What we know:
Elements (H helix, E strand, L loop, with lengths): L6 H4 L10 E7 L5 E6 L4 E7 L9 E4 L12 E5 L9 E16 L5 E2 L2 E6 L16 H17 L2 E9 L1 H18 L1
Parallel strand pairs: 5-8
Antiparallel strand pairs: 1-4, 1-6, 2-3, 4-5, 6-7, 6-8, 6-9
Amino acid sequence: MVRSLSALERLELDDEETGDLVAVVETPKGSHNKYKYDTKRGVMQLGGVLGEGLAFPYDFGFFPSTLGEDGDPLDVLLMLDSSVPPATIVTVRLIGVLECRQKEKGKPWVRNDRYLAVATHAHTHQHLQRLSDFHPHLLREIEAFFVHYTGLNGKRLKVVGRGGPRQAARRLDEGRKAFRKSA
């Protein structure tokens, strides 16, 4: 069965003008709501509400024209100077990947990595070139956020490793190939 692709899914992963990567924001930094792109209807949808005291540490979204083992586009945490609304398209530079495994009740573990990227328009975060440029405690906080948030949604998440920009690019290319194969 061939499925119809929505506008955000059809976006090219590479920006033709700049050569930078393209990401789509689903949930803005500081949001207590988790938004999710509904690929069937082509709209943003409220996917859930975070527990009391939790908020997204940075803008969170996905890379278009990619597909992960979980059946969704690949996830990305975006370093921006200030948050942007859901469905905003942002050009970014990859700085690394948190290699993750995720499990839903009654289902097997699947890879569900979290990519980290800096918006090309950001000023505050331009010094970030790789994960080692982060304060180590901040990376642990980001990992803890994803583990805790996922756990509150009845799933389990394990961070099994970290990779730099090259490894992130290789994994992103795997997601690009999986998307092309499925389309």
